[in-house]
Amino acid sequence: MSELTLDPYTQDLYDKVASLRREVANLHTAYKSADRQLNAMSHLADKTTSDAVKEAIVAEEFVSLALESAQAAYQAAQHLGNPQLIEMTKNNLALTQAALDYASASTSINAARQTSGGGGG
Fold first, then answer.
1. Over the Cα atoms of the chain, what is R_g?
2. DSSP structure string for 58-105
3. Sign, CA torsion 45/51/57/62
4. Alpha-carbon gap, residue 121 to 109, rounded angstroms
5. What is the pLDDT of residues 70-98, one digit of tens each?
6. How far apart (Å, rounded) are the C-alpha atoms in residues 88 and 91?
7. What pTM did the predictor assign?
């Protein structure tokens, strides 16, 4: 059986094509790997955002309970008629209301991130 011999120019072209095929195969492998990593990171980000929404809701509920407590303390201070106690519980009520506003905003922001990010798991 005789071997096929190529002239140097044709052999050079053949070698370049073979090299380019290997490069395309390597790029395809690298793309598949990067795609898997991006999908895993996206899934993790969705889960993290979902967890953040749950935690923000719990914090908001806790602060809501604190607000009810602050309101009860303020009403009790008014009932007792002690001006210093009334002022202190009024200040506490205002701070607790601000904390609830902040917690509510945090819940809304995290929920918006979850829906804009494609949802969570």
1. 33
2. HHHHHHHHHHHHHHHHHHHHHHHT-HHHHHHHHHHHHHHHHHHHHHHH
3. negative
4. 18
5. 999 999 999 999 999 999 999 999 999 99
6. 5
7. 0.58
